[in-house]
Design goal:
This protein is about 45% helix and about 15% strand. It is α/β, with parallel strands linked by helices and about 250 residues long.
Length: about 250
């Protein structure tokens, strides 16, 4: 990243801040401003995420919407438009429209409609009286996170340890990963392949931390494992629209 930008993540759930943590952190380290707005987060996740965001050099705010009730309403659009116009981002990151269709996390499909409508309306002369003092946002470059079909990756090796530390701070999420209750024999076999001493670890938090670390290493090393990517750890993204280059890149 040549220089810092104003980078905004519009996320459904808290863990998305860490999933995009490499790009957000590198932007902050380059002198840019990284900010995240999260729609759905419990009180505990909000507490944890504030710690993660601090590690990544990213500010964060919570909209406290209900994943089972959002409908891309006028009021919900205004809430996101206000964030976009206030922050005036150069880059917006949000969830992948393809992935959200089959993802069974609640709220992802209406969230996708909501966020794309808000981005479109934020740049137009829309609801100016309802949001006084906030001018329409300039056109931002849009990236979809962890997409079904990425067309670019961010080399996150320089901030890998920070990204891991940020994930370690999401204790509520790690406790979920580390649960043993109702574990099937097949799940136990998988866990032991990734974490050989899985059965000997008493702490659900430690189990979850080790399991998630192995999953993350596999996911972010996958582009390099094919032999066609020079980044050892790479966050995948899909840029919306064309890349405009002065010259072809190596």
């Amino acid at each position: 990243m040549e220089s810092g930008k104003r980078m905004l993540l519009l996320g459904a759930y808290s863990m998305e801040v860490v999933e995009c943590g490499g790009a957000l952190c590198k932007n902050a380290d380059a002198g840019g401003i990284s900010h995240a707005a999260i729609l759905f987060a419990s009180a505990k996740m909000q507490e944890d995420l504030k710690k993660s965001a601090a590690i990544l050099g990213t500010s964060v705010e919570f909209l406290n919407m209900d994943a089972g009730k959002i409908s891309a309403s006028y009021e919900e659009k205004l809430a996101l438009i206000k964030i976009i116009r206030t922050f005036q981002p150069d880059i917006i990151i949000t969830q992948d429209p393809e992935h959200c269709v089959s993802d069974l996390d609640p709220g992802r499909r209406p969230f996708m409609t909501l966020v794309l409508e808000a981005i479109a309306l934020a740049g137009r002369a829309y609801a100016l009286d309802e949001l006084p003092g906030l001018k329409p946002a300039r056109s931002a470059t849009l990236y979809y996170m962890t997409p079904e079909h990425p067309n670019c990756v961010v080399d996150i090796l320089p901030v890998w340890e920070k990204k891991c530390a940020a994930m370690d701070a999401l204790e509520a999420q790690l406790l979920y990963f580390g649960e043993k209750e109702e574990e099937t024999p097949e799940q136990l076999r998988q866990r032991k392949m990734a974490v050989p001493n899985w059965e000997d670890i008493e702490s659900p938090l430690e189990r979850g931390m080790l399991w998630k670390r192995e999953m993350d290493k596999a996911f972010y090393m996958y582009p390099a494992s094919t032999g066609h990517c020079r980044a050892l750890y790479a966050e995948p993204y899909r840029r919306d629209g064309h890349f405009v280059l002065d010259n072809l890149l190596i």
